[in-house]
Amino acid sequence: GTTRPVLLLTRRYPDAVMTRAGRDYRILTNEDDHPYGAEEMARRAEGADALLVCAVDPVPAALIRALPDSVRMIATFSVGTDHIALAAAKERGIVVANTPGVLTDATADIAFLLLLGAARRAAEGERMIREGRWDGWAPTQLIGTHVTGKRLAILGMGRIGQAMARRACGFDMEIHYHNRRRLPAAEEAGAIYHADADDMLPAADFLSIHSPATPETHHWLNAERIARLPDGAVVVNTARGTLVDDEALIAALRSGKLAAAGLDVFENEPKLHPGYAGLPNTFLLPHMGSATDRTRDAMGFTALDNLDAFFAGKEPPNRVA
Ligand code: DGY
């Protein structure tokens, strides 16, 4: 047979993914699973035909230009592609592909977990009991925000936004959404479309963010938009931290304008804006939307499917550049 292509794996991926990668490629591995910076990534890419990166590996234009000529494809183990300078990749003729679809349900599950957990003060209750501060049931203890029958506004009605809407249907929620294009199927199921996201905000008892990070969505949830939300609204973000202006969100959680926030993603991960940790009404998770056994395997297999197609001379099914 022909020699297998050389694949740089920037991190330790799930066992089944490593096994398949090792069978079909000559793999360069990251033994202690530390994040490579740009410099180390360029150095390690020496002799590689392709890279398997993930959402926390920044691949800016400068790194793309510094990659050795041997690198012809970057497969990312993520649906998000905001960490990769796609235009620069295109310019160098490097093909890029992502993993849409396979993490939809896992991420929507975490979004709904955050919605419920933030609304119902699950983290506060958990801390109370764990720290030995629970002195028994009381009629006014840990009263949260009612969920069933409320209005849920979804920013970004892609796969994950739609899966969030399906979950909310089980809670008899009224769905409002903003998306670049209208979705007749969602509207047939009762969702209410807002051409302008700002016009949706007054209807958002709950606001869940599912848009990609782009220059246009940077700090989208700012002080002005928070002011348009109903008093006591709950905000959920499982997309990217850069969509939220942390200072504005923290001020609104502190003043009581917002009841709570459930956040799985942050602007400078893994650094947390210190304002969040000091607030009781934040329910915080460490970017684990896609972290299920089946989902992480499927992300790896999808990334490998993209690589396999490319090296077989075919179009990768999830090509983005
Ligand atoms: C993604 O896929 O973009 C997530 O952020 C990591 O699973």
TrEMBL record:
This is D-glycerate dehydrogenase. Keywords: Oxidoreductase. The keyword Oxidoreductase applies. It comes from the Bacteria. The lineage of its organism: Bacteria, Pseudomonadati, Pseudomonadota, Alphaproteobacteria, Rhodospirillales. Residues 32-320 form the D-isomer specific 2-hydroxyacid dehydrogenase catalytic domain. Residues 113-289 form the D-isomer specific 2-hydroxyacid dehydrogenase NAD-binding domain. Pfam families: 2-Hacid_dh (PF00389), 2-Hacid_dh_C (PF02826). Belongs to the D-isomer specific 2-hydroxyacid dehydrogenase family. InterPro entries: D-isomer_2-hydroxyacid_DH (IPR050223), D-isomer_2_OHA_DH_cat_dom (IPR006139), D-isomer_DH_CS (IPR029753), D-isomer_DH_CS1 (IPR029752), D-isomer_DH_NAD-bd (IPR006140), NAD(P)-bd_dom_sf (IPR036291).
